[in-house]
Amino acid sequence: MTKRFNPEAEKLHSTVDWWTTERVAGRLHVKVTCPWCKEPRMEYAGQVRNRIKNGTFTGYCYRDRLLQKGKVSRTGRPEHPAVDWNDTAIVNTGRQRLTKVAVTCPGCGEKRHASPGPIAARVRSGKFTGTCLPCSPNARKREWTVLGLGRKIDPNKGYIRLSHEAIAPEHRELYDAMRGSLTFVTEHRMVVAIALGRPLSSRELVDHMDGVKTNNDLANLRIYRRGRNEPGDTTGYGTFYHEWQMALAEVERLRAQLRVP
């Protein structure tokens, strides 16, 4: 016999509404409201009851569960001129909200918020300077190299990007098919696509044979396929996927010439 649920017999908690319940797969769930974001949710009543009894229930949702938890430091917060331990902010990191501490860059004076634990550890080790990434002497200074109208070198990957302005009118349909939702197409992929007369698929990659990413001469490029057990997989050396695709493109060009009256 199932015991009748009596909300008046339950221990009170500011985040739990014992009078709003529902059964999910035969199990009783009770309404819980997060004290921070005020969003209601349904939780398993048995677990809520036990955690209230043990004094461990807070009512915070998964996203805000760490806000009410403060890690006690046995050595205290180390002082640093760039860190203000009293200036904190709640930062939304996506799936959850975290409490972070203010750090002011001694170089540019810009304030940012960072996790207090790693900051304290670096201050104790003597390695923390407080400088932001743009002001750090160890940061790589990455600048875009403009080669011409619509052509520039990506400072992160080293490839040449092509925007719409760099594409000849007769190749813009091919360019748009390659671009998709992006704002650019890399030059080495565009060169091979023009040679084949068709857009490359997402599983078709292009390798620079001499390793120079800006050398996009067709003779230096080789097409291969991503993934195992594919015809012409790996970087194309020892396979004939590249030759096969180039031969198909040449056949199509010859057929087009034969069709011309």
Characterization of the model:
The chain is α+β, with helices and mostly antiparallel strands. The chain folds into 3 domains: 11-54, no CATH class; 83-125; 145-250, Homing Intron 3 (I-Ppo) Encoded Endonuclease, Chain A, CATH 3.90.75. The protein has 5 helices and 12 strands. The chain has helices spanning 45-54, 116-125, 172-179, 187-196, 241-259; strands at 16-24, 27-33, 40-44, 83-92, 97-104, 111-114, 145-148, 151-153, 160-162, 185-186, 204-208, 221-225. The strands form 4 sheets. Strands 7-8-9-10 form a 4-stranded antiparallel beta sheet. A 3-stranded antiparallel beta sheet has the order 1-2-3. It has a 3-stranded antiparallel beta sheet with strand order 4-5-6, with helices on one face. The radius of gyration is 31 Å and the shape is flat. Residues 188-223 form the HNH nuclease domain. InterPro entries: His-Me_finger_sf (IPR044925), HNH_nuc (IPR003615). This is HNH nuclease domain-containing protein. It holds the Pfam family HNH_3.
Quick recap of the structure?
The chain has 261 residues and is α+β, with helices and mostly antiparallel strands. It has helices spanning 45-54, 116-125, 172-179, 187-196, 241-259, and strands at residues 16-24, 27-33, 40-44, 83-92, 97-104, 111-114, 145-148, 151-153, 160-162, 185-186, 204-208, 221-225. The protein has three domains: 11-54, no CATH class; 83-125; 145-250, Homing Intron 3 (I-Ppo) Encoded Endonuclease, Chain A, CATH 3.90.75.
